[in-house]
């Protein structure tokens, strides 16, 4: 430090440092000090150091740091104003980079002219400060790391070490995330040869300050000794790295919470494209790729537009969160949409319009990826295997065979057109390309895909109504082999949305909720993929019933069309099921469906949510439920079609949405309805089935005395025999017998069920109105997520409840330990040893400032759905302890809960309770219904800080 202090006087006579380029003038901004630092960093340093009576070096260092802190703060404020005013994300990122350039230049001046000046510098006492990595591109997000290379001609000297330290310490004091390396030119060449990450960072090296000839020498040697002749290896490494990154961030570019930086279709993909192109074509600016023949002008504009938009989104994410947040989560999506300036339109919320724009940009990035890789393969700058992995193929087999059409050929074992006029000669070839690819298991050459996108103007009303074109499309849609892959290629080229304009409306459309994991178009295509797997018989273990009945379905084509169109009317003001059915009636004849097939497809679309809704939220043991559903379905063929469609629809929503529990519910509804539709009388059939179940249990309890067996069988009402399978009845019988032998009236048992994805808690206790509230509260307090509750009362006043909670652990032993903790909490609560309300309150998450999702609470009271019970359907925003709050409210209303059915669709909870009053009668009084409705709505308006939350008044509805 003393040496630096003594050097100050001689250094003050030195001249100014190089000026830093200013991106977008800030002269008109209210930051004059920032403008001066950007214009001339040396002058800012001189103001601190060159004045009479300047303080010691330590004080000067602190003063300089304070000046730079103000520079960074003003720079961020200026960049945010620029982003809001110009709506140009790239300009914002470049402004932030320019501000950082000025800060680094100031520190370099201070270090080399004031703290450690080299009075008689040797050849080794030279330094170049270089921006590398993302900073090297001249762009920074508000929370980005600052990557610096301190470049020396030879091995670092003591002087160089002092200079580097005097620059780094202030950067750390400024709370910046700095990544730095100190290397000689020889080090750079040697390490870049050995490490692709270092090679990539140096590829975008940008001179900041110091010795420019030293930097230029490094760039020259890097090009000659590292880059030359290694483009294929570099490309292969970058594409492999991309695959790993995308797999980690999410394999689909249509995930509804995308990673803007590292996800598929994000900024890193654009960066990777430019790295590869820069390496192979030896260019420094993306605009040079037009002259190089890689992009045409339209594709260059696509690249620039995508880059700007992604930077706009990323910068707003960092500004809003105050950190380097890269995942565009649901709570951020609303805020970013507002910041960018989106408004609602045509039934779509601002956030949904914003996310559609985002996904369209992600799609463009995917198109550019294919273009670059195809061009590199043509130049033999990359191995063919990389392109196959990147673009996908319909199978791993490649066959060369006669294509059966003169306009198509094979190029590098991929399907291509014979010349650029193939689509102009016959626009039907646009669809024929994909038909041949599907039929022959061929990947489509990127040149052909690119030509399809460039030929979309040929998709006219004439082509849409061409019988051959529609025949081909229906063949593609209903192919048993790879329809999902072919449809996705058609969608990515833009052809699918052009040929089916209603599909084009939902391309990249996001549904702003936690239930749907993908955009609407991606969901529809994935659903077709699931259906094709069922059709092929490859999902027998997972979907045994759907697999069994598929071969008996006579309306296969109608089923595929219905599934493809079932959500096609999303985003419209009217109910999408009704609007979608209308689209099917219009589109069916065009595609070649008969009148009957069209009617079936339209019916399936209009009712595509019915089976899932009834299975998950109705009492399947209530004859009225089955009779009502059978009246809707009307025929066994429709029942089969609706089951398969429902399975494919749920499975395609996203990972983890489908489970064995939902499968069992659907199978139960199917079998119960099948009896009615095939001519059986529900009451007679139920009586026969009850007797059959009782006989089956008698056989299982053969080791019991005959009188004990009959006494036990007499303890259960008919509903128990209908709803519970014989194996579980056997377990219940032995569970009750053991509890009674131990003199216990309160007991629990746990059992895991991997196939259904649930853990069952069996509870025995004396009946009382608040029992279910206590059980649900104990589960909530112990972290158990209830997915269903079967409630049975015995003739001697005991309750035998089966509570199904979703699994938390993959291993059974871990799951059993967790379930036993929940069961113990339930027993203690039933015995009054713990206060449930306090435990649930502790479990609740603290109230957040804002609410990401809005779900209007609704209570429907229905006396038609069940012959014996009033049905309460309660829906609203889910939260920890909601089921406990609802059951507590129902208990306080003096209602008996006969059964409860719990369904959660992302953030929306739909809980259905079959109830009676204390006299086991339905609730028919309008005034009583209004009281129930208001009490249940109050559950959603309750706030801990406001013990007397206002009631939500709504008209009574019978």
UniProtKB/TrEMBL annotation:
It comes from the Bacteria. Uridylyltransferase (UTase) activity is inhibited by glutamine, while glutamine activates uridylyl-removing (UR) activity. Belongs to the GlnD family. The keyword Cytoplasm does not apply. This is Bifunctional uridylyltransferase/uridylyl-removing enzyme. Its cofactor is Mg(2+). Residues 1-402 are annotated as: Uridylyltransferase. NCBIfam families: PRK05092.1 (NF003467), UTase_glnD (TIGR01693). It catalyses: [protein-PII]-L-tyrosine + UTP = [protein-PII]-uridylyl-L-tyrosine + diphosphate; [protein-PII]-uridylyl-L-tyrosine + H2O = [protein-PII]-L-tyrosine + UMP + H(+). The lineage of its organism: Bacteria, Pseudomonadati, Pseudomonadota, Alphaproteobacteria, Hyphomicrobiales. Residues 520-642 form the HD domain. Residues 760-842, 871-947 form the ACT domain. Has four distinct domains: an N-terminal nucleotidyltransferase (NT) domain responsible for UTase activity, a central HD domain that encodes UR activity, and two C-terminal ACT domains that seem to have a role in glutamine sensing. HAMAP family: PII_uridylyl_transf. It comes from Bosea lathyri. One of its GO terms (molecular function) is [protein-PII] uridylyltransferase activity. Its EC number is 2.7.7.59, 3.1.4.-. The gene is glnD. GO terms for biological process: regulation of nitrogen utilization. Modifies, by uridylylation and deuridylylation, the PII regulatory proteins (GlnB and homologs), in response to the nitrogen status of the cell that GlnD senses through the glutamine level. Under low glutamine levels, catalyzes the conversion of the PII proteins and UTP to PII-UMP and PPi, while under higher glutamine levels, GlnD hydrolyzes PII-UMP to PII and UMP (deuridylylation). Thus, controls uridylylation state and activity of the PII proteins, and plays an important role in the regulation of nitrogen metabolism. Keywords: Hydrolase, Magnesium, Multifunctional enzyme, Nucleotidyltransferase, Repeat, Transferase.
């Amino acid at each position: 430090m003393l040496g630096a202090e003594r050097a100050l006087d001689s250094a003050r006579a030195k001249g100014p440092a190089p000026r830093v380029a200013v991106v977008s003038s800030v002269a008109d901004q209210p930051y004059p000090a920032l403008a001066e630092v950007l214009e001339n960093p040396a002058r800012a340093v001189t103001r601190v150091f060159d004045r009479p009576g300047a303080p010691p070096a330590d004080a000067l260092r602190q003063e300089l740091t304070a000046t730079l802190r103000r520079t960074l703060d003003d720079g961020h404020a200026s960049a945010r104003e620029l982003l809001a005013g110009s709506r140009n994300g790239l300009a914002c990122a470049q402004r932030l980079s320019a501000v950082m350039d000025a800060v680094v230049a100031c520190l370099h001046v201070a270090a080399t002219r004031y703290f450690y000046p080299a009075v008689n510098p040797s050849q080794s006492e030279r330094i170049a400060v270089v921006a590398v990595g993302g900073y090297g591109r001249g762009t920074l997000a508000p929370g980005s790391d600052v990557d610096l290379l301190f470049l020396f001609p030879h091995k670092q000297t003591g002087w160089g070490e002092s200079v580097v330290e005097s620059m780094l310490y202030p950067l750390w004091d400024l709370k910046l995330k700095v990544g730095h390396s100190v290397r000689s030119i020889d080090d750079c060449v040697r390490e870049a040869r050995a490490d692709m990450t270092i090679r990539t960072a140096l590829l975008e090296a940008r001179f900041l300050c110091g010795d420019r000839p030293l930097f230029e020498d490094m760039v020259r040697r890097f090009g000659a000794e590292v880059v030359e002749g290694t483009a294929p290896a570099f490309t292969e490494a970058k594409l492999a790295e991309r695959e790993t990154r995308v797999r980690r961030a999410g394999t689909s570019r249509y995930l509804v919470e995308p990673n803007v930086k590292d996800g598929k279709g994000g900024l890193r993909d654009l960066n990777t494209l430019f790295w590869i192109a820069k390496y192979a074509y030896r260019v420094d600016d993306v605009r040079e790729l037009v002259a190089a023949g890689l992009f045409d002008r339209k594709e260059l504009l696509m690249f620039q537009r995508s880059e700007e938009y992604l930077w706009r989104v990323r910068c707003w994410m960092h500004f809003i969160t105050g950190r380097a947040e890269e995942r565009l989560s649901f709570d951020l999506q609303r805020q970013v949409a507002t910041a960018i300036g989106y408004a609602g339109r045509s039934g779509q919320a601002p956030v949904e319009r914003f996310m559609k724009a985002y996904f369209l940009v992600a799609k463009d990035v995917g198109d550019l990826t294919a273009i670059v890789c195809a061009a590199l393969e043509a130049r033999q700058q990359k191995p063919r295997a990389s392109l196959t992995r990147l673009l996908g193929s319909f199978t791993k087999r490649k066959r060369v065979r006669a294509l059966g059409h003169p306009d198509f050929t094979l190029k590098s074992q991929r399907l291509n057109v014979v010349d650029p006029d193939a689509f102009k000669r016959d626009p039907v070839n646009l669809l024929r390309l994909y038909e041949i690819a599907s039929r022959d298991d061929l990947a489509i050459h990127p040149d052909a895909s690119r030509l399809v996108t460039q030929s979309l103007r040929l998709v006219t009303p004439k082509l849409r109504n061409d019988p051959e074109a529609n025949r081909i499309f229906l063949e593609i849609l209903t192919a048993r082999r790879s329809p999902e892959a072919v449809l996705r290629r058609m969608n990515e080229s833009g052809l699918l949305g052009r040929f089916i304009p209603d599909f084009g409306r939902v391309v990249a459309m996001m549904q702003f909720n936690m239930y749907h994991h993908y955009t609407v178009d991606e969901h529809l295509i994935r659903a077709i993929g699931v259906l094709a797997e069922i059709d092929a018989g490859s999902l027998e273990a997972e979907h045994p019933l759907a697999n069994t009945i598929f071969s008996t379905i006579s309306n296969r084509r109608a089923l595929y069309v219905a599934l493809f169109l079932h959500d096609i009317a999303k985003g419209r003001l009217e109910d999408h099921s009704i609007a979608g059915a209308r689209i099917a009636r219009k589109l069916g004849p065009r595609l070649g469906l008969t009148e009957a097939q069209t009617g079936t497809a339209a019916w399936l679309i209009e009712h595509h949510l019915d089976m899932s809704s009834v299975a998950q939220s109705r009492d399947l043991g209530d004859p009225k439920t089955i009779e009502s559903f059978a009246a809707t379905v009307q025929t066994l063929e429709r029942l089969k079609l609706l089951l398969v469609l429902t399975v494919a629809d749920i499975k395609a929503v996203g990972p983890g949405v489908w489970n064995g529990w939902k499968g069992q519910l659907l199978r139960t509804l199917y079998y119960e309805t099948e009896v009615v539709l095939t001519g059986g009388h529900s009451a007679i059939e139920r009586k026969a089935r009850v007797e059959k179940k009782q006989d089956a249990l008698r056989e299982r309890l053969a080791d019991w005395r005959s009188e004990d067996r009959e006494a036990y069988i007499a303890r259960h009402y008919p509903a128990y025999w209908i709803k519970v399978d014989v194996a579980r009845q056997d377990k219940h019988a032995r569970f009750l017998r053991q509890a009674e032998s131990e003199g216990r009236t309160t007991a629990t048992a746990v059992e895991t069920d991997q196939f259904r994805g649930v853990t069952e808690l069996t509870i025995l206790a004396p009946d009382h109105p608040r029992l279910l509230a206590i059980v649900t509260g104990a589960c909530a307090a112990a972290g158990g997520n209830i997915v269903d509750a079967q409630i049975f009362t015995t003739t001697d006043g005991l309750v035998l409840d089966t509570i199904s909670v979703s699994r938390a652990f993959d291993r059974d032993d871990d799951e059993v330990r967790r379930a036993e903790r929940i069961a113990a909490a339930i027993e203690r609560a039933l015995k009054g040893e713990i206060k449930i309300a306090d435990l649930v309150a502790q479990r609740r998450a603290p109230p957040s400032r804002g609410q990401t999702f809005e779900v209007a609470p609704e209570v429907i009271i229905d006396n038609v759905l069940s012959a014996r019970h009033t049905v309460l359907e309660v829906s609203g925003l889910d939260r920890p302890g909601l089921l406990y709050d609802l059951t507590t409210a129902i208990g306080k209303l003096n209602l008996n809960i006969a059964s409860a059915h719990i369904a959660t669709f992302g953030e929306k909870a739909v809980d259905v309770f079959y109830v009676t009053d204390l006299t086991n009668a339905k609730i028919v009084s309008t005034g009583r219904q209004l009281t129930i409705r208001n009490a249940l709505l109050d559950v959603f308006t309750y706030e801990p800080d406001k013990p007397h939350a206002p009631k939500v008044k709504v008209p009574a509805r019978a």
